[in-house]
Amino acid sequence: MDHVRRYAPMLPVVAVIALLGLPIGPGGEGGAGPADAVSALVVLYCGILLVRDRRRPLSRTAAVVLGLPVLGLAIAAAGAASPGAGITGMGRYLQLFVLVPAAVLLLIRGRGDFRVLAWSFVGLALWQGAIGVHQFLTGTGASYQGQEIRAVGTFGAQDVMGMATVVCFGLVCAVGLALGRTPVRHRVIAACCALALLIPLALSFSRGAWIATAVTCTVQLVLAGLRRALKVGAVVAALGVILVGGFGVGSAMLQERISSITQVTDAPDQSVTDRYTMWAAAVGMWREQPLTGVGLKGFPEHRDAHASLALSAGSDTEGAGAAFRKQPLLSPHNMYLLILAEQGLIGLLALAGGWLALLVCGLRGLARVRRSGPGLDCGLVACGFLVWQLTDFAYADIGGPSTVLTAVCFGLAAWWALVGNDSKQPTATPAPVPDRAEEAATR
Fold first, then answer.
1. Strands (E), 64-208
2. Contacts within 8 Å (CB) and 24+ apart, 425-430
3. What phi and psi values does residue 386 have, to the nearest 5 degrees?
């Protein structure tokens, strides 16, 4: 009971993460789900706690960084094609980038709470990854090159990026926890989890997830120490050769998918061609309305007027319990261009400016605790989240049930950047035991 009371404020956030382990109906559209509903309850719960405990709300810096996007969103919502589209779009952006991150920041009371959420990400990733590996081995996944072998977890063929995103977040957490100064047993378990998650990540056949994860883990290793980065890099490279070589027919598909990354300019496939076409369409929309954009939810309406004939009718989805269907292309698959097209320069500077501010503050705090002080693992996880998300946003955007995890990630990153890198922060509330273990490991 003591542990339940100690981590009670974190339980609603853990529930948001856990709900993403539930299966989604084969005919689902991949929109908002139970986790999104619970995330709204998290915001309400946080507000009730603030009123009950008469706690001081966000600091001035945190209020500016997290509240800055509201200005661009309000302008873009006013310019939307209809009031309903403006309200819906603004509500989604506020949920993901303002309200839920602020609630997570306020509910975390110390590094112990942070680690509970990080391990929750790892647990969800292992669960979804195990389902994905089973789908590959039994041929019950999403369709890929005519075979139903693509690992998608419980998200189904309508959200092929869902499992890959979850696994990537878990991998980032596991790597950060393994590189910290917590007890050796915890670090070994985290390292084993990270190695295990490489398998479902490979079987997701997601080039974007591979790139973002490779960049993020490299950054985490370098931030933890260059010598350690070289050692771990050599081990991972050796394991990668063994992993790919042990998949038989899967190895050929993986090698082909990896080689296609270098062909996105010389010989792009249809999916890459569609992405380039939609990027060009987003830029065309921005040129018409450079400051305010075409309005929230306006990309689908203006797409055809700016897209070339190279754009296909949609992407084919099939498998994992779902029948064949043509999924329409309603976003540019680039978060920065989506914001630029719908919110203009004002919206992009407000949102991306806040993200860069969090990254700078997080890296400064990480440099401080790396020299002395506890919390290295928390800093590596938080900065890893930001690096992964900002890299992934270059060829992906928001959408699907797994998107709510983005809000939780930004909340964890905001806590570290704006509050948690203070050396006086407790490791757990109220128990100080993990702090002593961390200090002993540091010595």
1. 142-144, 147-150
2. 425/110, 425/111, 425/375, 426/109, 426/110, 426/111, 426/112, 427/110, 427/111, 427/112, 427/374, 427/375, 428/6, 428/110, 428/111, 428/112, 428/113, 429/6, 429/109, 429/110, 429/112, 429/113, 430/6
3. -65, -45
pLDDT tens-digit series, residues 360-404: 999 999 988 887 768 899 999 999 999 999 999 998 888 888 899
Residue with tokens 């987003």: 282
Asked whether residue 308 is domain-assigned, the answer is no
- pLDDT tens string 11-67: 999 999 999 998 875 544 545 688 999 999 999 999 998 888 777 678 888 899 999
β-pair partners for 319: 142, 322
pTM: predicted TM-score of the whole model, two decimal places: 0.89
Residue carrying the six token digits 């991150």: 101
- Structural domain boundaries enclosing 37: 33-46+57-269+328-442
Q: Is residue 157 part of a domain?
A: yes
Q: Is there a domain that residue 8 lies in?
A: no
